[in-house]
Amino acid sequence: MRHANLVESFQSILPTESVLYETEDLKPYECDGLSAYRQLPMIAVLPGNEAEIIEILKICEAEKIPVVARGAGTGLSGGALPHADGVLLSLAKLNEILEIDPVACTARVQPGVRNLAISEAAEAYGLYYAPDPSSQIACTIGGNVAENSGGVHCLKYGLTVHNILKLRVLTIEGDVLEIGSEALDSPGFDLLALMSGSEGMLGIITEITVKLLPIPEAAQLVMAAFDDIEKAGAAVANIIRAGIVPAGLEMMDKMTIAAVEAFIHAGYDPDAAAIVLCESDGSNEAVAEEIEKIRGIMRESGAVRIDTARGEAERRRFWAGRKAAFPAAGRVSPDYYCMDGTIPRKHLAEVLRRIEDLSSEFGLRCMNVFHAGDGNLHPLILYDANRSGELEKAEAFGARILEICIEAGGSLTGEHGVGIEKLNQMCLQFGDAERDLFHAVKAAFDPDSLLNPGKAIPSLHRCAEFGAMHVHRGDEQFPDLPRF
Amino acid sequence: MRHANLVESFQSILPTESVLYETEDLKPYECDGLSAYRQLPMIAVLPGNEAEIIEILKICEAEKIPVVARGAGTGLSGGALPHADGVLLSLAKLNEILEIDPVACTARVQPGVRNLAISEAAEAYGLYYAPDPSSQIACTIGGNVAENSGGVHCLKYGLTVHNILKLRVLTIEGDVLEIGSEALDSPGFDLLALMSGSEGMLGIITEITVKLLPIPEAAQLVMAAFDDIEKAGAAVANIIRAGIVPAGLEMMDKMTIAAVEAFIHAGYDPDAAAIVLCESDGSNEAVAEEIEKIRGIMRESGAVRIDTARGEAERRRFWAGRKAAFPAAGRVSPDYYCMDGTIPRKHLAEVLRRIEDLSSEFGLRCMNVFHAGDGNLHPLILYDANRSGELEKAEAFGARILEICIEAGGSLTGEHGVGIEKLNQMCLQFGDAERDLFHAVKAAFDPDSLLNPGKAIPSLHRCAEFGAMHVHRGDEQFPDLPRF
């Protein structure tokens, strides 16, 4: 089917303004949050309901045209990068909160609903939706499911997959799947978990039932400063080891503290080598007691300064600093590359030392911010895209960081997904047997590979090429990898 | 390959005593906890290590012989029922705890390790493994993963899938898969969750890395008695709605209380229409505070008696009653059939009324015990297998209960799996599109359907036959189903 015919087909099922094909109309869709990669789609469609999506999918399936789903486009790994010969399927118009059930503590929503909008709507019932990616003002719940998003609170409350109950999903053929249940478990293979984090490669999500939680009575935050980043890492481990599950447990290094303080004056200790933010939420009494315990552990772990937020304003200010870490990086450097690897907590200090060495080796600064409680690192590599070769250096630096995470027994993504960004590292993370299975599972859902092709799972060919330049976990060839 | 040749092949790779083929040797493997169904396998093998399992699988794959994996055989849905023309693969000899990492709070274990043995070994480090099926003294962690087992504590601490980090799995071809990671998330499709609860149909698990939690400082239990089962149900909802996540939240009806009291004198109120057990664990202060809140909610919900356990001995006695509910059923009836459905909590009272009606209709008594917090019902249908037709009536009664759970928006299994027991209800729980996908996912792992064939996913043929006698969610044909 030629381009013009396809436009006509879509126009026959959608309002005219919902079918975009002129370059200037397609421009807003050319990238997601990983803006170093850009590609115009052939056509973009903006359906308003599930029936229209079914018709779109049937056309694409019949004509073997790739389909890339898109929420708000805030993803950081290129998962929503359009396909040059494909259709960009925006789910932005499916933005209704269909039902809030305050007894069952659930909300049934369309995929284009913004993450924060769910909590805003649930607030009237004293409820909220727990996972809170930094982009929660803008990002959509459909995108959250596709990437299995996390956030500051996921240490205590889990990732997206732990906070959803049911999904309504369309197959590439346009069939409706109803998966999951309102119960804790669901029989048969766990398609709900399989769909979570599948990056638009298995089906198109049209409805999501999320869990809502009662808004905690109280929340309180401790900011602890350390003169040594290893002590800060030990404090994190000691808190977890004491059986405390904080509502948030974050860490920032010296360069991040400086950048943040210069930017928004969060009140962090500017002399610290690292600070740890630790939040407790729950009933007034439980929070008061837990905060005392946290302060005690910080003290025993060698903190040089321990501040408990004096009132809600200071608590928000402490958090504002953490949440401003990415824009703060943007102020001290023309460009930055945000990484997302996870490691077992016990290797934190070792991995940080290694990142410092790489920083010298590549001649690029690196700010370190992390969800310390779950070992999820967000190194921010600072570079200047206008200086020849710096982007490439930043990417190579980033790739090395991910490889170190894998070598440390961790994973190449904590919450940002694989997308197109981390395809090469997937060749390191998994062997042939696992990758073969990923492809087999993909084929079980989408035999012609029309749904977001080329993302998340590297082709065997790509891994062979990558392997040729980059020996898989070869100790001899990788003398600079840390031995854990 | 003929039987004798197959025995010889296995004997060439296994010690002689690890290959069983005589009827008397096979007898112990003829059923699991669903003992109404029995079948001798052709051969049973008891490998001692992964290398031996790989050889066994290669032989079975080459000869297209079905393989049924078995842990301790405590499963209640017939998942480990042998295949008449197949090999029963016992994992009992793979029973080593390979490593406990007290810093990362993980244990790496073989599949044949008993659930409770993990907590016993971790106790020296002040740690334990949270999921606690009633059978935890006997059941194995491999079986727990295969069934995604729950237990009293899973309301607070999650099902098995939420408490495992990594799996080592063999495909039917004998390839090794390493899935999951020590981090919170893992890239690629979520094969860890897909494997959990897959009932031995996708691969053979040879190693499991589980999460360990710090043993709580304190645990305390409230026993509340109600003169009306609906009030008890409301109390459960009110506790959840108040943002409390109890370590256990269980409910029993009048008949269960009577049976339990006659059996072990747990100290329950014998006049109550229902009792609710609610446990809090954590630090001393947090538990004391939460117990006060729980007592307050019980009072407001209309409890006629509220006892907080006076000391550890009484706490254990209150729990002993709950844990003895199944054997207590065995004392008041020659046989009982344990069901396992889940429903949204809000429909608890309605579903219980419906079960009572069915009890009259079928002329069989039914005791009701449930993990009330997560809406997981365990109706125990009492019958006498020696009375002609009673088993069939019990099965029909049980099937109706599961159908009501599905109709109420719940699910046909909470934690016991589908096995062979609930294949018909899977035809009601899911439509063709979902079942097609289950088969496609199965084929992606096991193209010749050699791993535990005939379990968990009904064939299209079976559903067509079942549908012919039993119209799918047909309101007209099902006038007796409750409308929610």
Automatic annotation (TrEMBL), chains A, B:
UniProt cofactor(s): FAD
Keyword DNA repair among record annotations: no
InterPro entries linked to this entry: FAD-bd_oxidored_4_C (IPR004113), FAD-bd_PCMH (IPR016166), FAD-bd_PCMH-like_sf (IPR036318), FAD-bd_PCMH_sub1 (IPR016167), FAD-bd_PCMH_sub2 (IPR016169), FAD-linked_Oxase-like_C (IPR016164), FAD-linked_OxidoTrans_Type4 (IPR051914), Oxid_FAD_bind_N (IPR006094)
Taxonomy, superkingdom: Bacteria
Domain FAD-binding PCMH-type intervals: 37-215
Entry annotated with the keyword Ligase: no
Any matching Pfam family: FAD_binding_4
Any GO MF annotation of the entry: FAD binding
Keywords assigned by UniProt, alphabetized: FAD, Flavoprotein, Oxidoreductase
PROSITE patterns: FAD_PCMH
Protein name: FAD-binding protein
Native organism: Methylotuvimicrobium buryatense
